[in-house]
Amino acid sequence: MSLTHTAIAVLASMIFVLSGMIGYVYWQQTRMLQHIQSLALALATHVEQARQMEAPPQTEEDQEEEDDRVSVKEPVEIVEGPPTATTPDETDTDDLQDKTSTQLRELLTKKGIPFGKRDSKTVLLQLLKATA
Q1: Same domain, 49 and 85
Q2: Is 90 in the same domain as 127?
Q3: Cβ distance 117 to 75 under 8 Å?
């Protein structure tokens, strides 16, 4: 029995030591991550200050020009004339899924519905479904 008790005691002490080592490694990892985050924050602050120092101060004219550029919207194609009568196959929403973007744009142009030149196929389909 003595050998069994000795083996159990040795295994228990090994498990205790290993769990202590794992705890220590976890503690070191947590400290390392905190230090890395602190360095990243300090570096980001330093880079932001450097950018502000390099950027020339903006005058009122520059700010107005920037506002004008921001407020420019995408041109919308305007079709003049009344919308034409649609045939039943054009308004069928099942057939619209199979059409390409250019075919959808042609349908919108025929119907007289304005759309953006850069609209995706899903937007064009929504426009056609809304007017069907």
Answers
A1: no
A2: yes
A3: yes
